[in-house]
Design a protein that fits this description.
The chain is 79% helix and 0% strand. It is an all-alpha fold and 408 residues long.
Length: 408
């Protein structure tokens, strides 16, 4: 392949990975936005809105946890491109069907299937971008993927507000089918091709648990990202309840808080990615953003008692502080060899998302004893301490040669 074709392929991989993550975030946020209106249209009311909403969310997150493992293993066994095609096809079909559901059981099954499909996008995209770009520049590629992708939440908020919920799901499916067309002609990672025919253990998920060194590194990779989803899953999701505790008289809309937070996340992802390249360090930038998170969480909980305008400004700032998602996923991808890289890069962000469940349960349990503000403080500080300790234990991966394999 000549240099011109190679550069074009790299550019297409970055664009397609970014758009794939855009669709991933679009659907992830869309369900939260249309949850109430969609359930009401199916005849659900009262307390069942919360009960069935939790069921559907858990089905979606459960699908993503399982899908992360499935697509990660496929990405290492069959190739990164196969995941980009398979995951978005499954997601698109599930979302198309989602627009026709008539009852909650149908809705639940399709959210589970959509969750499986969505789980493969980010990990496969980051893995592919990391392997096709040079060691010195790949951070810019993953920065673009995350920054563009995060804006899927903003589009989901707008589509969910202005269109019927069924149309919103059709839009998501349509975006997925367009992506499938764009992916035709994209080439596989050369690093992966180099080991495809070799007698090497590929996509062995259990390898991560058989060796203490691999397991420790894997757990550290996951722990680094938990504070990001503490912000999204607790502080932003329950923003109306926090606003009430802060005695803010104006109504705070969760959908707006989500949108403003994700605008901040997009800004943060761009900044963290660029700074990791400028300072030639993943670790230092992640550490700096974790400290920034600690400051903003404290501001949110104890200095956020003014009006709705100030509240939403703080939501944007919180998003910026948690905007090291691109660097976090890139760092996880760079920690492991070719034969297990896709498995790690795909499962780590999905396990972080899944960590919202125990984090939320701990928050809810502590709330009964300390109140909503101090419960959030305790859980947030715990997540931040674990994340900071974990990033200290990981190796610096900026400029690291990724052309190697792991031996079980």
């Amino acid at each position: 392949m000549d240099k011109k074709k190679t550069n074009r392929n790299v550019l297409m991989i970055i664009i397609i990975s970014a758009l794939g993550y855009f669709v991933d975030i679009y659907d992830l946020i869309l369900f939260s936005i249309v949850r109430v209106v969609s359930l009401k249209s199916l005849g659900i009311s009262g307390d069942e809105l919360m009960t069935d909403g939790v069921l559907l969310l858990n089905m979606q997150m459960g699908g993503m946890l399982i899908g992360g493992i499935i697509w990660g293993v496929i990405g290492d066994k069959k190739g990164r491109i196969s995941v980009l095609f398979g995951s978005i096809l499954l997601y698109s079909l599930a979302n198309l069907a989602n627009g026709f559901v008539q009852n909650v059981p149908q809705y639940a099954v399709l959210r589970f299937i959509a969750g499986i499909g969505l789980a493969g996008e980010l990990g496969a995209g980051i893995t592919l971008v990391s392997e096709v770009m040079s060691a010195e520049s790949r951070g810019y590629g993953t920065m673009i993927v995350a920054t563009i992708g995060i804006f899927g939440a903003v589009v989901a908020a707008m589509v969910g507000d202005y269109f019927d919920w069924r149309i919103a799901y059709f839009v998501g499916a349509g975006l997925g089918f367009v992506l499938l067309i764009l992916r035709v002609g994209v080439y596989e990672s050369g690093m992966y091709d180099s080991i495809k025919v070799k007698n090497v253990s590929k996509g062995n998920f259990l390898m991560l648990f058989k060796d203490r060194k691999y397991l420790g590194k894997y757990i550290y990779c996951i722990s680094v990202g938990v504070p990001i989803w503490f912000i999204v899953g607790i502080l932003i999701t329950f923003s109306p309840e926090f606003a009430k505790a802060f005695n803010i008289s104006e109504p705070i809309v969760a959908g707006k808080a989500v949108m403003f937070c994700y605008i901040g996340l997009a800004i943060g992802d761009f900044l963290s990615g660029a700074l990791s390249q400028i300072f030639k360090s993943r670790k230092k930038i992640i550490e700096a953003f974790i400290i920034f998170e600690a400051v903003m969480i404290f501001v949110y909980l104890f200095f956020n008692r003014y009006d709705a305008f100030f509240f939403y400004i703080v939501c944007i700032s919180l998003g910026v502080s948690g905007g090291y998602w691109a660097v976090f996923v890139t760092n996880a991808s760079e920690q492991f060899g070719i034969n297990i890289r896709a498995t790690v890069t795909t499962t780590v962000p999905n396990f972080v998302r899944g960590a919202v469940v125990p984090v939320t349960l701990l928050f809810d349990y502590m709330r009964n004893y300390t109140g909503i503000v101090y419960s959030a403080l305790i859980v947030g500080v715990l997540a931040l301490i674990i994340a900071f300790f974990s990033v200290k234990r990981l190796e610096e991966t900026y400029g690291k040669d990724l052309n190697y394999i792991e031996v079980s």
